[in-house]
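User: Hi! I'm working on a homework problem where we have to compare a predicted structure to a textbook description. Could you give me the structure for the chain below?
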Amino acid sequence: MMSEREFREMQWIEQGKQFEREHPGTIMFREPPSSSKEEEEEKEKEEEKHETKTTSLFSEEEKEERRRVAIARRKEKFTRNGIYVRKKSSRGTEENENSAGELDYMWSQTSSDVTLSVLAPLGTKAKDVRVDVTETSVKIALCKEVVFDREWEHPIGEEVEEYDEEEEYNANGGLKFNESDKSFTPIRRKLTYGSWEVTDYDENNRVIRVTAQKKSVELMRHWWQKCLKDEENHGEMLKLPDRSASAKSYDSKKVWDDAHADFKAQVKNRELIDVEVGK
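Assistant: Happy to help. Predicted structure tokens:
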């Protein structure tokens, strides 16, 4: 038995043939027969059967917990071997830890570099920020307004900016050949201090992170006790988990002081020696 759709399609074909017989050489464009309402409904039901339903992998509580864990890990990373510094209130005392604007800045360090992190409003982009770093200071401007201007506790080391034609630089040993007088002149490479980025911090803030290389001190590892000059001493609050046990037990100043004290004791306790002087 022929279905309703098949009947309508056959009827449509016969009508087209009849039109061609009555109007030879005439081209007519016709819409094909549309589906009935019942067929459309049946098609929709079929599509619903095969429709893939997307479900969330985590509940709202699990999402919130994962978010808290992510923020906690980020805070730990931004203060590793360093500390966070709370803002001072108008009375000169530290604000409550949970108050708005809790953090002024944070810093972390490794044996070779130090990273300063300054909080910025949500929505801050790199194009809104200008960072100027020198051997002794760091200045941050947000939307052309200076929001941070401090001095490093210790001088930082310079970094060599990459040369545009690095392969040519290395091949020529850092010299440029002058065709005019057939001579070589040194290629000057610009020195820079530090690098920076803008990244997320929590749901209310972004953060401007400035990373600088520590200036080597007589080929010794130097773990900073403070990041900025006007920063208070943190004492036992400052933890250095990345500092090895041997490094913890080795204090260059203590070794020097002990050696100096030992030398003074030897001088004090030395016995006098009689020396005959020729008459």
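For your comparison, note the following. The helical segments are 4-22, 37-50, 60-78, 166-171, 245-249, 252-269. Residues 89-102 have pLDDT under 50 and may be disordered. Good luck with the assignment!
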